Amino acid sequence: MGQVEAKKQLKNQIGVILLLTMFILSGILIITLGAADLVMAGIRMNRLTGYSSLGFFASEAGLEQALWEVRKNNYVLPDVDQDNIFQNIDIGNNSSFIVNYATSSPNVTFTSVGFYGGAKRSVESSFEFGSGGGGGPACAPDCTGKECGDDGCGGSCGSCVTGSCVAGVCVPVTYVCTGVDPENSTICTGDDTGLTEDTAKTLVGSCTDPVKCEYICDSGYDWNGSSCILAEVPSCRKEYNENIGGWDDYNYYYGVRNEEDLYGESSDRCDVWWYWDSNIIYEEHTLCSNFLDPSSIDIGGYRYTRGDEYDYELSGREAAWYFYEICREPL
Fold first, then answer.
1. Span of 191-195, 235-239, 251-255 with lowest mean pLDDT
2. pTM, whole model, 2 decimals?
3. From CA 253, how far away is CA 282, in angstroms rounded?
4. Per-residue b or e along 296-322, where b marks 16 or more CB atoms closer than 10 Å to that residue's CB
């Protein structure tokens, strides 16, 4: 009985060992296969890393092409979103790209996807485009009728050598007379045109050429060297004044006598006296053939002028007397 029982126990133990051995071997196999999978995954990852870089470079190439087409080649963008707006199936190293386009005014967006050996990378660029924003046609420069200024797309239609650009046209610089108009004066004719620089307004006694922006006093005003003052009104005088004395007790402002009959033909003599404020301002006594007989005299800052005859007298001494007004005005 004891031997039989021992044999049964031994047989049972052999089955357990076999089962444990199978478990152990299975575990080793699983671990080995797992490690192998990890190694293969690492190998694939290393390969894809290189592929991914090439795919990234391809996506950047696609984005650069899209931007160049729009900004430099005047590519007209569609009004709606569009896939594969640009593509290249082989850019020279078995890599490729496609560019998708999306619009959301005022922005446009390019998404470039690059491919190489199963790897795929993408880059994106979004920006405002054109005066109407995204979704509209590309900006087309327009310089029609312009010689300067903006072309409507951020470029230039040219610049002005002189002057300034106004609404696409070069306008010459306009120079003006500066300062306040002098009182009671008028600018000299043409002095506010043809200026080559801004020029100060100047009050002068008379206009000079080619000086610009000169002003002269208005009629009825005189220039005193710095301003225009009310001119002295010319005054005229005529009178007899027996209290002062003079020839035949007359004080006259202008008189002439012919003494031919008094002294003989050979003495043919003429005389003249000019009076103002009872003072003689001019007199002349000479042969009538040499008589100057001026019509006006400038003296003491005034001009005295012979006016209208207002009386005539033939004296008892055979002399003819003519009486005239004398008028005075400042020079």
1. 251-255
2. 0.32
3. 10
4. ebeeeebebbbbeeeeeeeeeeebbbe
